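A reminder from the course coordinator: this example appears on the midterm review sheet, so study it carefully.

Given structure:
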């Protein structure tokens, strides 16, 4: 399986899409940088804030905010198409429960609560130990009034819902009528710049729902449901349509130039009357996503050992990283570092600690499913080179499954 959640499965290397693996890893790294910097930017609140902020980060973080999660959802949607090539709809649904719902529950009980405790301690709302705080998580009162939340794991919750809701559509795509529809749609979308028609539905819904607040609570979040649901579906179609993926490769330079042009026009923000600012912003996001997909597919054509390992750790890294940043950043406040030294130290230290936690999870069989990882690969005996009769006759090599 090649999606964000199923990061370590027993599949042949030829079934992987190294370009999507590379983009997934890049998204996770950008997400780590973004969340490390949120302690220092001046635009929005965070669980813990540094004593000296860095307003110069605001513009860069605004751009990252527009792109990081949409690209990740687009990739996750594309990966569902690859997963469904190797299993039926029912097996796919069960796999989503194991790879998304189980890590989400584990995350809400184990990974997320330290963030809430640190925030309460830092703001003076709570003064007890973490262990005296944790039972409040089981009360089921949603954050911020209570201590039950999925925080940054909202993406996992939304992705699970999208996968389950789309099951009837996925089943129809497997039939003769669905196949005929997909063939006609691919012919249309792979012609000229028709891939922009996909953006019309995605961003049209976001525009109509622009006045709704983003809550990430699933039940009262129509703008994000429509936006990320549209990206998920567009990504799924992209995963099924090799002709469309090839067209994005052909248009990658044009999409990049359009992206840069729209970005230049949008800086500084607020200069264009309604709705031109919205249209330029949506155009920038879609052009950038399409350029990223096109360049990755054109340039990243072969799997690499480091990429295989990195993508296998991407999901647990995502689950761990924000909690590590918040807890470590709160602890580092006592060091009284300068803002840039603080930011650099927090980014590097939290990255290394998160990687170490991922390696720990990868080594412990019972922890792997809790963080969305598949079972360890079985050791495979392979014949060694010919040797003299009195020498060893074989060597046992162990490779982690891709």
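Designed residues:
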């Amino acid at each position: 399986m090649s999606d964000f959640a199923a990061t370590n499965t027993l599949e042949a290397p030829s079934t992987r899409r190294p370009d999507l693996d590379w983009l997934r890893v890049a998204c996770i790294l950008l997400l780590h940088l973004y969340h490390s910097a949120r302690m220092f930017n001046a635009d929005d609140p965070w669980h813990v804030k540094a004593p000296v902020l860095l307003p110069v980060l605001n513009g860069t973080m605004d751009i990252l905010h527009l792109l990081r999660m949409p690209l990740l959802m687009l990739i996750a949607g594309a990966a569902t198409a690859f997963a469904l090539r190797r299993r039926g709809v029912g097996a796919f649904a069960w796999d989503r429960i194991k790879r998304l719902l189980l890590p989400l529950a584990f995350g809400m009980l184990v990974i997320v609560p330290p963030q809430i405790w640190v925030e309460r301690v830092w703001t003076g709302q709570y003064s007890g130990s973490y262990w005296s705080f944790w039972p409040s998580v089981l009360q089921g009162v949603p954050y911020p009034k209570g201590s039950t939340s999925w925080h940054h794991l909202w993406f996992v919750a939304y992705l699970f819902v999208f996968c389950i809701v789309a099951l009837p559509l996925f089943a129809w795509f497997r039939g003769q009528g669905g196949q005929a529809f997909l063939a006609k749609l691919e012919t249309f979308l792979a012609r000229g710049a028709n891939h922009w028609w996909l953006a019309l539905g995605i961003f049209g819904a976001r525009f109509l729902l622009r006045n709704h607040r983003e809550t990430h609570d699933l039940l009262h979040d129509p703008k994000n449901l429509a936006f990320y649901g549209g990206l998920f579906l567009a990504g799924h179609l992209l995963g099924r349509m090799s002709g469309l993926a090839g067209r994005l490769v052909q248009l990658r330079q044009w999409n990049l130039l359009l992206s840069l042009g729209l970005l230049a026009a949008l800086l500084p923000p607020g200069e264009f009357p309604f709705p031109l600012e919205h249209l330029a912003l949506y155009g920038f996001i879609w052009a950038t996503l399409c350029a990223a997909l096109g360049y990755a597919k054109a340039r990243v054509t072969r799997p690499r050992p480091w990429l295989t390992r990195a993508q296998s750790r991407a999901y647990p890294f995502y689950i761990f990283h924000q909690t590590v940043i918040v807890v470590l950043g709160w602890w580092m406040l006592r060091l009284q570092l300068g803002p840039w030294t603080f930011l650099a130290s927090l980014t590097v230290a939290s990255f290394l600690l998160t990687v170490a936690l991922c390696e720990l999870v990868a080594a412990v069989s019972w922890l792997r499913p809790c963080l969305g990882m598949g079972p360890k690969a079985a050791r495979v005996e392979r014949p060694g080179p010919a040797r003299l009769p009195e020498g060893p006759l074989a060597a046992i090599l162990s490779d982690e499954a891709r």
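The two ends are 9 Å apart (CA to CA). Confidence is low (pLDDT under 50) at residues 1-14, 384-402.
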